[in-house]
Structures are given as C-alpha cells and as structure tokens.
Amino acid sequence: MIEGKALISGVGISDCGRRLGRDPWSLTAQAALAAIADAGLTPADIDGVSTYPGALASTPGMSGAGADDMRSLLGLNLRWYNGASELPGQLGAIVTAMAAIGAGLANHVLCFRTVWESSAQTQIGSRSETMRSGVQRERSQWIDPIGASHSTYGGLTMQRYMYESGTTREQIGQIAVVARTNAALNPAAVYRDPMSLDDYLASRMISDPLCLYDCDVPMDGSVAFIVSRADLVNDAKRAISIAAIGSAPGFDQSAAMMWSRTDLKPADVDMAQLYDGFSVLTLRWMEALGLCPRNEGGRFIEGGHRIARDGELPLNTNGGQLSGGRMHGFGALHEACVQMRGDAGERQVPKRPQVTAVSSGAEAFTSCLLLTL
Amino acid sequence: MSDMQRVAPPLTTRTADFWRSGADGVLRIAHCRACGLYMHPPQPLCRRCHSFDVGFDPVSGRGMVYSFTINRYQWKPGMPPPYVIADVELAEQAGLFVQTNIVGVAVEDVAIGMAVKVEFEQAGDAFIPVFRP
Ligand SMILES: [Zn+2]
C-alpha cells in the first residue's frame, strides 16, 4: 500500500478572487512557494510535479499552468512529473504523486491546481466557450445539436436523484445555504453575503431543477500541496496522512475502494470536504461514502444543523465551491488540511477534526481521500 | 422545436452513420452482431464481448424519459429557451440512453417515466433524433 509512504507535508494558497487579472503563472508560483515553505523545504528539494489538468489539453482559464511551466518557473530539478486531465478526478493529481513516491520516482512532489476562469470569461467569452477545447470536439457532437451545456448534467442528475430519493429542493438547498454561512467566515470566499433558504428557493433556474445557487462559482486562484516521502517529512506533527485512496471511476466505486484500504469506518469521519460543482453532487458523495444512508441525504441535511460548522459532520467549511469558489477539489483538500491542523482561525470547527473525507469529481471522473492526523 | 436552428454535429468516421440514419425516419444504434449489445454513443467494438462486428441497426425508436432538465439559457443562437434536454432510455435495452430533446409537449408537462418516440430534425447533413410523447 502506498498510503503509508507519502504524506501531505505542506499546503499553500494564492490570492483568490473574482477577475484578479493576475498572470496565472504568478498565482501558481505564489501558492507553490507557500507550500514549499510550509513543508520546511526549498525549491531545490522538489523533485516531482503533479497537476490537473496540465497545460496541453485545456482551454484558457481552466488551466493556469502546466507541470513543465512550473519546472521552468521555479527552476526545479525534476525526476518525475505529470500534468494530465484524464485522471481519477481532479485530486487524481495527488493520487498520482503518491504513486510516484511509493514507486521511488520522487521524494517531494509539488501538486497544484490553478484556475483563472473568472478572468478568462471576461477576456474570451462565456463559460461554455472557455470550457470547450479541440480535444472535446468528438464529445461536442453529443452536446451542441441538442443545445446542452455544462449545466445540463447538473439538471439531469439532480432531477433523477430527487425522483429516486424523494429529496426536495428545500433539503438540497441546505448544501448551498450552509456553504454560504461558512463562507462568511472565509475572507478568501467569493460570495460572503448571507443567504437564506428562501433566497435559494427564489433564485433563478438555470436548468430545472438546477438553480443558480446549485452551481459553483468561477474564480481565479491557485492551491498547492507538497506530497513527501513519509520518512523525509520535516515536521511530522503538521503533516497530514492519507489513510486511504479511492481512485476508481464512479462515486460508489471510488468510495468502496477507499474503505477497502483502511480499517477506519464511515462513523469515524468527523469532517467532510466534498465536491460541490453542483450541490446535488455533494449528496451523492455523502451517500456513496456511507456518511448517511442511501437516498437519505436530503433528510440527513434537512435544516442544516448536522452539516453546520458546529454540527456532527461539518461540511465544506470554507464555503465550498458554491460560495468559496471553484478550485476543483483542491480547495476542499486545502480546507481539510487547514482545519485538521487547527489553523482555520475564525472558521475553525470547534472539535479539531481527526478524520476527514475529501472527494473530487463526479460520475466516471472521481477520487476520494481519507485524511488522518 | 422545428423552429430550432440546430448546430450540425461534425460527421466523424465513428458517428456519421448514426447522424445520417434518420434520413429515412429510422433510428439506428451501434449494435454488436455477435452478442446483441447496443451501445450509445457508438464505439467500433463491443464493450461486452469485444467483437469488432458492430454496425448500426434499426431500433423501435421508442423509449422512456429517464431524467430531464428544462434548459433556461440561450447557449446557441438558433435555440431559444426554454427547451427540455432528457436522457431517454431506449426500449431495446436497460441502461441504453440517448441524450436528446423532448419536443411536442409543454416543458412543464415532461415527467420521468413518460413514454416517448423518436423523430428527426435536420441540421446540415445530420438528422438529430429528438423524442415526442
Ligand atoms: Zn458483443
């Protein structure tokens, strides 16, 4: 098992926000240098780089820097690198780094995700255009003739989930409302103004039953981690262990794989940072991970008390992607590390988490990590 | 939705026969002639038995709405909202989905489980399968 061989030794985040107008290489370097310093290392110690989605496969805004960009930006002497979009979820870049360390290819891997969609949309056009690339042309033939968009998947999966589970919009809305409440305590979050359940219910439909506040918000920013060989970590007390990896495609498959690689159980999880590109995806992850019974997600989060910052299962405590901003799973992992270290300041959950479930992606593009101290 | 000006799909070697199929009003789906599995989107070999004997064969064109969403935004100049995008599960095989539009019904009257039948709307050289209750 590679899980015991690699730890998260450092975390870093750049300035984040709407339309920063900053060079994404600058944001990436800011996050990377912060993570390297946090790990007690210097750039000379970094011998691996891993990122999603890499520079080649992507369109403006989706990728702020590639693996090789970082090599030359920081003058790294690499033994191994990876920048790819076909991975087990966005956090697949972390999984891959762990695998490289486990295989002896690298000692300290810089992992990062940089987005500047918010600025790119101003410069280039709408979200749907910035998300489209030549690589996706083969796929676009199934989307364009029927007038589908990025939100179509959100609408379809939410509709089907509500039909199968009997979940209501009032229940699903708690994902967005709790995220907004949490974002108020996060100075880096995009949306911090209070939002009530009534505000959620009254917001405009994007693709029924998917409303505006079910959709995450683009931003500019970069998040970086250092994944290090366990015996080379400088400050073991600040390192975060990855107790188990789930890298199989599919919510259920990914979750089942993760639980098969640890003795810990869903009941041991005391905090969750789960993918919320659309709010319903968080519920699907909660159920897949066994954090609530199947089809009971809506009733579990009803009223929002259980998933509040001071509830039994604090969820997306930085505001998630819905209110915090879209960092594609890397934001969730960053928040998990910060909370587990007890460094979350005003938004620190009252009982410092010992076991955290983190997930990224949806459908056949998924990964999840179980973090321990 | 006959007033829709649809974006024509690129006719690739993998999919041209699917897009042209509707010229005679018949929906054809990639079909493994060795084991009988239908596959959509099409692929050149069978996912189940790995036979390369896969071709586009006629199906009934009947199916059921598995899920749907009412699109509220104008993503394409020729497609004014609202309109319904749905996953239709074809009658031939459980789990055989076509992502499509539901036409000929008010958007608020579409429901999961609704029985629908295929028809086609032309875009360039392609015939886009859409479904009607
Ligand atoms: Zn076959």
Automatic annotation (TrEMBL), chain A:
Q: Which residues form the Thiolase C-terminal domain?
A: 250-360
Pfam family name, one: Thiolase_C_1
Q: Give any GO molecular function from the UniProt entry.
A: acetyl-CoA C-acyltransferase activity
Q: Which domain of life is it from?
A: Bacteria
Q: Which InterPro entries match?
A: Thiolase (IPR002155), Thiolase-like (IPR016039), Thiolase_C_2 (IPR055140)
Q: What Gene3D superfamilies does the entry give?
A: 3.40.47.10
Q: Which PANTHER family match?
A: ACETYL-COA C-ACETYLTRANSFERASE, NON-SPECIFIC LIPID-TRANSFER PROTEIN-LIKE 2
Q: What is this protein called?
A: Thiolase family protein
Taxonomic lineage per UniProt? Bacteria, Pseudomonadati, Pseudomonadota, Alphaproteobacteria, Sphingomonadales
